[in-house]
Here is the input.
Amino acid sequence: MNGQRHLLQFRYYKPDIHLTYAGIVGAMVAISAGADSVAGIGAVTIGAVAGVIVPFAILLLDVKVRIDDPSGGISIHGVGAIWGLLATPILARGLSLGEHFKILGKHLLGIVAIAALTAAFSIALWILLKRTTKIRASEADEFDGLDLAEHDIGAYPISSRTPSKAIT
Here is the structure.
């Protein structure tokens, strides 16, 4: 028992409330895709799988792909939704085999269309923001903490490296 760790302790060696929360919300997102066509056991299966893969996706995007997503929104809504859309036609009740594949094809097309539109709009928005405004903080502000630079107060005044502007 000493060598075993709980699933959400695999990365940080202690329970992580954020990953737990993300798994729960990701499960709710996943089952939303087929809430009207999947029986109870199918809904539990879709939710349980999403509850496991969403925290792993958060860590994968953060650690391996190096996408800064502190709230896990990409994994919760993206990975959770994709899993739900793929699992719904497989676990839907009352369909013939051909209908399962037909719905799966439509869902795959939808996933590709949503990903393409999201990428296009995101790239356009980032290009527009880069040309019209400053989207990066200065190195000094990052070092001091953005809470100090943007709100004029340190979030952690006891351990901050520089005194608060408001106090000095």
Summary: The two ends are 53 Å apart (CA to CA). The helical segments are 17-32, 40-64, 73-91, 97-132, 139-144, 146-151.
